[in-house]
Amino acid sequence: MSAAPTEPAGTTPTNGLTWEATVEASKKYFFDLPMAMTNETLRFAAHRLEEQAKLASAASSCKTPFELAETQSAFVLSTINDYQKTAEMFVHQAQKTTTI
């Protein structure tokens, strides 16, 4: 008794990979990558909401307009840094996941 064929009868992969590799690559691209991105997006959103709450708390304790401006400036710089790091992580994750 022979093993069942691993690819549909009469067809061959057009990407130069075996069917198993094609299925694995498809799983990574269509399932693993979106799940990882969704997870990271939710984590990032929660982190940014926490930072927003910290800003509100810090702003309420400022005594002068200068202190408020410093607090808001630090918040903006932190926000830019967070977005940059997260964007870099998304690119890295996409490259890692889609590399066969």
The biggest beta sheet reads: none
Order of helices and strands: HH
Helix count from the secondary structure assignment? 2
Low-pLDDT residue intervals, each spanning 5 or more residues:
none
End-to-end gap: 33 Å
Structural class assignment: mainly alpha
Strand content: under 5%
Counting structural domains, the number is 1
Number of strands: 0
What is the residue-mean pLDDT, rounded to a whole number?
84
What is the multimeric organization of the chains shown?
single chain
How do the strands and helices of this protein lay out in sequence?
Layout: H1 19-60, H2 65-98
Helix pairs in contact: 1-2
Q: In words, what does this structure look like?
A:
With 100 residues, the protein is mainly alpha-helical. It has one domain (19-98). Helices cover 76% and strands 0% of the residues. It has 2 helices and no strands.
List keywords for this structure.
76% helix, 2 helices, 100 residues, rod-shaped, mainly alpha, single chain
What would you say about this model in short?
The chain is mainly alpha-helical and 100 residues long. The chain contains 2 helices and no strands.
